[in-house]
User: Which sequence fits this backbone?
């Protein structure tokens, strides 16, 4: 009988230990699942914030595009500013003067002029009349091809 009581007390202790292990596993599982819910909620909130930010960015770009479409002069002005900025990163431009800008569209008409010897269709010519300077710029490779003085001959 003593052996039985001894074994039953061991069995009872093991059952109590097993119960405590099961209860602690359930508690840790609940903690993990609630922790998982918190992480999932944070991820959803971050995704929503990113989606709102991206939507706002594209909305602003759309509004700017609509403004440019309604006023073609703004498109030309924006293009001129962009071109001047790109060229000014490559060479010092004359101050206090806006250039006249031309686009080379037919190189065959310009082949006999030395300034246009290395030109290609699509090149831009910036002409500064006061500074008497012309700059040949190739946007496709972001490179200045030629710089030359401009002579403005006035015929009587």
Assistant:
């Amino acid at each position: 009988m003593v052996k039985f009581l001894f074994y039953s007390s061991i069995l009872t202790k093991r059952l109590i230990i097993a119960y405590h292990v099961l209860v602690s596993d359930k508690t840790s599982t609940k903690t993990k699942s609630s922790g998982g819910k918190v992480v999932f909620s944070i991820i959803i909130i971050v995704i929503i914030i990113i989606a709102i930010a991206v939507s706002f960015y594209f909305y602003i770009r759309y509004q700017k595009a609509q403004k440019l479409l309604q006023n073609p002069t703004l498109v030309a002005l924006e293009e001129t500013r962009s071109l001047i900025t790109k060229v000014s990163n490559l060479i010092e431009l004359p101050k206090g003067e806006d250039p006249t800008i031309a686009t080379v569209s037919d190189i065959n008409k310009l082949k006999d002029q030395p300034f246009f010897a290395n030109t290609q269709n699509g090149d831009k010519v910036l002409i500064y009349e006061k500074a008497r300077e012309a700059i040949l710029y190739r946007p496709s490779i972001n490179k200045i091809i030629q710089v030359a003085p401009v002579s403005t001959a006035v015929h009587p």
